[in-house]
Structure formats: structure tokens, C-alpha cells
Amino acid sequence: MDDSTDLPMSQHQILKEQLKERIALLEQTVASQAAVITQLQTEISNAKNHSSSVQEGIPQRLDTFKYEVLPVNTFTVSGTTITRVGNRLWSSIFLDHPITKGICRCSFEIGEKSSTWIYFGIVDSSLTYTHNRQPLGNGDRDVVSCGYRAGTGEMFHKNQSEFFRNKDEIAKQGDIVTMELNMDTHPHTLHYFVNKRQCRNAFLRIPDTVKIGLTFYYHGDSVKLTSFGLVDTPMATSESLDYPW
């Protein structure tokens, strides 16, 4: 026999109200947890979309990067090491992965036996370049590009027609030169680092689609690609001398 039937009606009502409160609290907890789960699912989905849609062309492995050489047969590529071969002349190699969105960071280690006649820069990937109109290092003022020369710390724009020199930003053998392109900022920016130390000069208003390029002069000069990909947070600060593209 159910003893509760002997309870006064007021106590029945109290029990009923208490059960209602407990059910309401449980429903609120479930709803709150469901909202958290939904938010996490949204963040995961956005992260996946960001990584896949921002730069589908960025290689998943460094040793699978694509490249283009001008003129042909002037470089060898072994794994992630790029080496200049042949007679003395300006030769360029581009990472054939157009950068359009996100924060892209790319680092190179200068070879131990290399000269410092190596240029690190970017080019407008919508343009076509030829042997006679290389974008980096040969003084063609009609070509629009910008970059950094390791041995002097010079920054140049429109190839060698504009120079900005900072002697404390010289890179030598064994040093790591990093380029950080921020395509999420407006205007887009390019900052340089030598061994993680930010260079004082930076470039503003770079084109919406660019490629990373290097120019060499001497046979045997080499660099090793040590990192290339998207990052969530920039290293660069606003404390730089900015030059427009």
C-alpha cells in the first residue's frame, strides 16, 4: 500500500512543486550543455573551413612544395634544400603556391657555404615573368616586386630601384630569414625577421595574390626551406617603418 495516499493534500502539492523545480533545473542544465556542444561544433567547423579554404595550395609537407625556375636548369631541389647551379647570372625560383588569404609564414636557412647574394621576396602572382624580366635581383625597374637581400640588409622595391638599408638586419650563413605575409589585414603587409628578430622595414599594400620568390647569383649558394604554412597569430608588431607597394 502506498503510504503517500495518507499524506495531506498540501504535502502532495509540495512534493509536486519540488519535482517540477528539479525537472526545470535538469532541463536548463541539458539546454546549457547542448548550447556548449553546438558552439564547440561550430568552432571546429569554422577551423576546418579556415584551414581548407584559406590556402588549399599550401603543401601539407615541406618536401612536396611546388616551384618554378627562371631560367630553367639553374637550380636543384633536394627535399627542402634549394641550390643554385651553373654560371654566374641572376636566377630566380618561386614557390608555386599563390598566397591569397590568412597569415602565411615562410622561413629559409642560409647554407653554410653560401655567399650572401641571395634575395628573399614576393612577386605579384598575376603577372608573367621571363628570363629577361626576372622579378628579383637583376635591376629590372619595370617589374613590381619587393624583397630583402641577406648580405646587406637592404630592402628593395620595384626590384633595385628603391633601397632601404638597415645594417643591423644582415643575415649570414646559418641564419634563418623569415617572411610573414598578413593577407587578413587591410592593407596586406609583409614583414621580415632574421633569427626571429623583426626587421625595421616592412611593406604595405602588397597585392591580393602573391608568390614567394628567391634570387641567387653564385653557383653553389643554397637555402633550406624550414617552414611554410599558415599561422593563427602574427609575430610582427606595428613598430616598423612601412613602405607602400
TrEMBL record:
InterPro entries: B30.2/SPRY_sf, ConA-like_dom_sf. This is B30.2/SPRY domain-containing protein. It comes from Blattamonas nauphoetae. Gene3D superfamilies: 2.60.120.920. SUPFAM superfamilies: Concanavalin A-like lectins/glucanases. Residues 9-36 form a coiled coil. Keywords: Coiled coil.
